[in-house]
Amino acid sequence: AQSVTQLDSQVPVFEEAPVELRCNYSSSVSVYLFWYVQYPNQGLQLLLKYLSGSTLVKGINGFEAEFNKSQTSFHLRKPSVHISDTAEYFCAVTRKGGATNKLIFGTGTLLAVQP
Amino acid sequence: ETGVTQTPRHLVMGMTNKKSLKCEQHLGHNAMYWYKQSAKKPLELMFVYSLEERVENNSVPSRFSPECPNSSHLFLHLHTLQPEDSALYLCASSQAPGLAGTDTQYFGPGTRLTVL
């Protein structure tokens, strides 16, 4: 079975500062990794995903994440945040070759950008 | 309409009521999903449909009954719910009928359900 841990439930940061949201996963098999964002009163939107190849993945809105297999991590980063980045961020994994495309989510991290 | 739409956006119901949630995807996808999002808990996958056939039932109580009449529509029929069923119910869709794990899931805005 797979599991995802997002240790930080909330991350406050000032506008234009850099931010890192942490994600660690546990799995006995190979996985694909995803970051989704949820803005208030909206559904989830894909930020980026790691399937294979380069371990540094670039996504929308200036976000990027790095897959570290040895540390089983997939941390999300942005060099300079904006007020509009305030949202909840979810890390997720799915088993490679799984039968049902089942996403396992973490509990989410609320990014609160302050002016 | 584009993307994935859900109706109603908000629903309040008593424990003896029967109601249905509706999801429609306008993306030409072949797989659809129901998720439950409760406060402080990870999103929980409830059901998966691929080409209108149910391929996953994630130990969901029988008071939740899904229906997928075609590849564009997904319903969640609710009856005799409990207060702990109050949550945001999210619908999603993805392209591939083979469910290879690489496909992006596209989410609707959700239905906020309150059970009194």
What class do helices, strands and sheet pairing of chain B give? mainly beta
Distance between the termini of chain A: 41 Å
Query: Please, how many helices of chain A?
Result: 0
**What is the number of beta strands of chain B?**
11
* Beta-strand residue fraction of chain B: over 45%
Largest interface by Cβ-Cβ < 8 Å: A-B, 28 and 29 residues
Average pLDDT level of chain B:
90
What is the number of beta strands of chain A? 12
Q: How much is the average pLDDT of chain A? A: 93
Overall body shape of chain B: globular
- CA-based shape of chain A: globular
Unreliable spans of chain A? none
Oligomer: heterodimer
Radius of gyration of chain B: 13 Å
H-E string of chain B? EEEEEEEEEEE
Count of runs of 4 or more consecutive helical residues of chain B: 0
Structural summary, described in words:
- Helix content of chain A is 0%, strand content 52%.
- Chain A is mainly beta and 115 residues long.
- Chain A is globular and about 45 Å long.
- The mean pLDDT of chain A is 93.
- With 116 residues, chain B is mostly beta strands.
- In chain B, a hairpin with a 6-residue loop joins strand 4 (31-37) and strand 5.
- In chain B, the strands form two sheets. In chain B, strands 2, 4, 5, 6, 9, 10 and 11 form a seven-stranded mixed β-sheet that branches.
- Chain B is globular.
- Classes of the chains: A mainly beta (115), B mainly beta (116).
- Chains A and B meet through strand 6, strand 10 and strand 11 of A and strand 5, strand 9 and strand 10 of B.
Spell out the blueprint of helices and strands.
The complex is a heterodimer of chains A (115) and B (116).
Chain A: E1 3-5, E2 10-14, E3 19-21, E4 24-26, E5 31-38, E6 44-50, E7 56-58, E8 64-68, E9 73-78, E10 87-95, E11 104-105, E12 109-114
Parallel strand pairs in A: 2-12
Antiparallel strand pairs in A: 1-4, 3-9, 5-6, 5-10, 7-8, 8-9, 10-11, 10-12
Chain B: E1 4-7, E2 10-13, E3 18-25, E4 31-37, E5 44-50, E6 53-57, E7 64-70, E8 73-79, E9 87-94, E10 106-107, E11 111-115
